Amino acid sequence: MLNSFSVPEGICISCSRKLNAVKSLSHETARPGDVTICNYCGAIMLFGPKMELRPADENIIRTLEKTALWAEVAALQRKRDTLL
Ligand SMILES: [Zn+2]
Prior knowledge:
- By secondary structure, the chain is of the alpha+beta class.
- 25% of the residues lie in helices and 31% in strands.
- The chain has 2 helices and 5 strands; from the N terminus they run βββββαα.
- The chain has helices at residues 58-64, 70-83; strands at residues 3-11, 18-24, 35-37, 44-47, 53-55.
- The strands form 2 sheets. It has a 3-stranded antiparallel beta sheet, with no helix packed on it.
- It starts with a strand and ends with a helix.
- The site of zinc ion has 8 residues, from loops.
């Protein structure tokens, strides 16, 4: 079960929607340096030092591709690509 937490409002780098909450695999809220995925479009981002949203680099994306979450991310990205 994923836990929901509020985070400072940010804008998705891909779809420009406002994001102000995360669902976490842990029992803690997001911190700077954590990876986050836009719930609307599947963009893979990173929280910066001030919790601003930044693009994730290729190493992070390649690591994420090997996790159980990847199928969900890929489904969100396919949905986004269909809408564009
Ligand atoms: Zn997005």
